[in-house]
Amino acid sequence: MTSSSLLLRPFSGTDSEFFATLASDERVVRFIGYGKPWNQQDIDACIVSALQHDDLNQVGASRWFVASMAGQAVGVVFSTRQENSIEIGYWVSPAHWGRGVGGTMLDQTLVMVPELFGLTTLSAGVAPGNTISAKLLTKRGFTLTVHTDQLDHYVLSPQSN
């Protein structure tokens, strides 16, 4: 897959159904939150949050993006300002697993998010069993900084990205 065939665009209200499909798919959420499909209330709360456009300098401000190929949604990227970093996350539709979509989404995120929020440290939380995501991050310069039974924390400093 070429990176030019994948487009990251801002999340909009019309993407709600796609997000709900991902959030209710046990394969997608296996390593996210409690590892179980989300209920409608949690899905709706996340969508409301995604559609807010708080000042990007505020802790908690986030921007979501939908990854699409040939006009079809294939994944979602999240970015949220934390105290000391911008936390990123990404979900790929199972129909597109194993095709390089996650890596391409991450590559584009590593360019776009620092431009959007200002050059800053990036972080990502990964469930310890999610070896594919851990490999995607470390291949791009992220380092494992904290390991727990529930979540590994990876960081990419501005000098690295």
TrEMBL record:
It holds the Pfam family Acetyltransf_3. It comes from the Bacteria. Residues 6-161 form the N-acetyltransferase domain. InterPro entries: Acyl_CoA_acyltransferase, GNAT_dom, N-acetyltransferase. CDD domains: NAT_SF. One of its GO terms (molecular function) is acyltransferase activity, transferring groups other than amino-acyl groups. PANTHER family: GNAT FAMILY, PUTATIVE (AFU_ORTHOLOGUE AFUA_3G00765)-RELATED-RELATED (PTHR43792). This is GNAT family N-acetyltransferase.
